[in-house]
Each structure stands twice: as C-alpha cells, then as structure tokens.
C-alpha cells in the first residue's frame, strides 16, 4: 500500500514564484498542483470557490498577483481586483473548506523611510497603488482566515518570468552603458528560495509544528539596484561575455510612475526563530540563477578583455 500524497493548490502557474514552487523539493506526502489564470481566474469569486472545493487539497498557496508596479498606477481597479479581492475570495473559500492559506506579499507595503530593517509589525504605509492593493489583500486575509501565513518578500528574481536579472542581461547585451539607481536598498531574493521556505512552512503547519501569522523572507545581505547590477555583470564577465559600463544614479534621475521604498530591507528573524529558516546570501542565490541563464564560460577567452563593447 502506498502512502497518501496530498495535493497543494498553487494559484498561479507561469509566474516566478509559482514556477519555483512547481520545481521545489516537496516532502513525500505533498504534491503541488498549479492553476494559472486560464484555469483559475482569481478575480472570479465563483471560480475561486469552485477550485478550492474541487479537490481534497492539503493547503493553498497564493503565488498570483498583479505585479506590474508602474502600470498599476493607471490600472488601480485591476490591481485591487487581483491583489485585494482575489486573496479575500481565496481566504473565504479556504475558511469554508478548513484549509490553511499561504499568501505571498511584498516589501512595497512599507514606505521605505525606516533606518533599520522592517519588522513584521512595523506600520505599513504603501506609497504606490501596487503596494496599497497588496496591503489591502493582507488586511482581507488576516480578517477572514485565522489559518493564514502572509509571507512578505522582496526584489524577486528567477530564471523565469520578468525580473531585474533578466532585464539586465537583455539591456546589457544591447547597450554600452547602463545608468542604475543606487539609493534604494533591499535584498534580492531568489524565487527558488521563497519556494523552499514556503514548502518548509507548509510541512511544519500540516504536521502541527508551525505557526500562523505574518513573516518576512528575503535572501540575506543588502544592496542597491546598482550593486545588484554590478554583481550580475561581474558574473557575466566571468563567463566570458561583454558587459556594459555601469553608472550609479539617484532615484530622482530615474522617475517612474510608481514610487518605490528607499529602504526595502526586511528583518527575517521571526521566520528564523519560528521555522528555523535561515536565508542564504543573495549573491549565492544569484550565482545559481545565472548558471541556468548563461552559457558556460569560453575557456579560450580572457576575463581581462571582457569589459564594455568598446566604451571603457
Ligand atoms: N516580483 C517581485 O519582485 C516581488 C517582490 C515582492 C513580492 N512579490 C510578490 O510575490 C508574489 C509572486 O510574484 P511573481 O514575481 O512570481 O509574479 P509574476 O511572475 O508576475 O506572476 C504573476 C502570477 O500571477 C498570476 N495571475 C495573474 N493574473 C491572474 C488572474 N487573473 N488569476 C489567477 N492568476 C493570475 C499569473 O498567472 P499565469 O501563471 O497564468 O501567468 C502568474 O502566475 C506576488 O504576490 C508578488 O506580489 C513579488
């Protein structure tokens, strides 16, 4: 007789975190099953209810969101539909089915004005429509479903989906110089590491050894977008490819529709104390992601000549 394997509903399929959840190492008794927007539209409460009731899920993970931060400024209705009303419907359905929900949230619920790292109970004060819609989603989940974990993370990157690493690789191959913001600080975080933390949380919750509530998870160490870009292109150069010249600039020289927190650094002590999850350094996680994005270094090339396309 084989042991029972219980499915876990992953809301989202092709997103960074959803993809990472699907390829994460799951314990023998749990198996992820994803529903992308074509199969489960999070903005349709009846579809949410039906999906949660459809199977004897062990738990639900919400990895879906409206994540186009600048576009959200002009599409507030769509952002709130997905980031507030979707999680609210999901939390109601989970409550009815007696299921725990892990809901992924963001550093953008904070205003970025604190000197130190943000703790879970610090007051939120989002500065963008995206941040406000995600904050509203948190409020709904907390009010509706006691069996929730809200996992806030930051600066997510992966070898799939849209993210800063992939953007740098693309524009770095096209241009001789990149001007990158150097006065916003945060912790770049691998989607694979968020997925591994989520699996650990679920395993503990489902065996009665977990705790509900809000937790921060980000890879360790902090940098700026400029520092992040430097690390990316150091790895690119080490793999024998040309890299652009990088110029640090202040946020005011790179205006965007949505305001970003100047300090996005998350204090991750609570998840370490409660779940024993200690994030690895962001640079190590970056190196793994670049290994899957970039070809092996060409042995014949010398790093000494791998600078810019003639600009340096
Ligand atoms: N990206 C970041 O830097 C960052 C930073 C902090 C926190 N977060 C949070 O981390 C979580 C995951 O972000 P991500 O970067 O993995 O997102 P992403 O790559 O932009 O993917 C978005 C996901 O949302 C799903 N989705 C979009 N519209 C939907 C709808 N109407 N119904 C159901 N699903 C829908 C997509 O479904 P399909 O699979 O069908 O495309 C996709 O799986 C989000 O909660 C986000 O707020 C992200």
From TrEMBL:
It catalyses: dTDP-beta-L-rhamnose + NADP(+) = dTDP-4-dehydro-beta-L-rhamnose + NADPH + H(+). Keywords: NADP, Oxidoreductase. Pfam families: RmlD_sub_bind (PF04321). Its cofactor is Mg(2+). It comes from the Bacteria. Pathway: Carbohydrate biosynthesis; dTDP-L-rhamnose biosynthesis. GO terms for molecular function: dTDP-4-dehydrorhamnose reductase activity. Binds 1 Mg(2+) ion per monomer. Its EC number is 1.1.1.133. Residues 8-293 form the RmlD-like substrate binding domain. InterPro entries: dTDP_dehydrorham_reduct, NAD(P)-bd_dom_sf, RmlD-like-bd. Belongs to the dTDP-4-dehydrorhamnose reductase family. Catalyzes the reduction of dTDP-6-deoxy-L-lyxo-4-hexulose to yield dTDP-L-rhamnose. NCBIfam families: rmlD. This is dTDP-4-dehydrorhamnose reductase. It comes from Fodinicurvata halophila.
């Amino acid at each position: 007789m084989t042991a029972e394997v219980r499915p876990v509903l992953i809301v989202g399929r092709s997103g960074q975190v959803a993809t990472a959840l699907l390829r994460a190492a799951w314990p023998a008794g749990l198996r992820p099953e994803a529903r992308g927007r074509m199969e489960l539209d999070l903005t349709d409460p009846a579809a949410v209810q039906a999906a949660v009731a459809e199977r004897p899920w062990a738990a639900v993970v919400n990895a879906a969101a409206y994540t186009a931060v600048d576009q959200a400024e002009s599409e507030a209705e769509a952002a709130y539909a997905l980031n507030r009303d979707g999680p609210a419907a999901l939390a109601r359905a989970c409550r009815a089915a007696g299921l725990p929900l892990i809901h992924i949230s963001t550093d953008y619920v904070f205003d970025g004005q604190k000197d130190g790292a943000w703790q879970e109970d610090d007051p939120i004060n989002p500065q963008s429509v995206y941040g406000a819609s995600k904050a509203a989603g948190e409020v709904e989940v907390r009010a509706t479903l006691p069996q929730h974990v809200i996992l806030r993370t930051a600066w997510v990157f992966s070898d799939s989906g849209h993210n800063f690493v992939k953007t740098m690789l693309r524009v770095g191959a096209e241009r001789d110089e990149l001007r990158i913001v150097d006065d916003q600080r945060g912790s770049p975080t691998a989607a694979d590491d968020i997925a591994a933390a989520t699996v650990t949380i679920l395993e503990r919750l489902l065996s009665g050894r977990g705790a509900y509530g809000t937790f921060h998870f980000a890879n360790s160490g902090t940098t700026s977008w400029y520092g992040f870009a430097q690390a990316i292109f150091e790895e690119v150069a080490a793999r024998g490819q040309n890299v652009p010249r990088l110029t640090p600039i202040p946020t005011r020289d790179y205006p965007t529709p949505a305001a970003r927190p100047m300090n996005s650094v998350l204090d991750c002590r609570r998840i370490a104390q409660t779940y024993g999850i200690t994030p690895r350094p962001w640079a190590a996680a970056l190196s793994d992601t670049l290994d899957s994005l970039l070809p092996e270094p060409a042995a014949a090339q010398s790093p000494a000549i791998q600078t810019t396309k003639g600009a340096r």
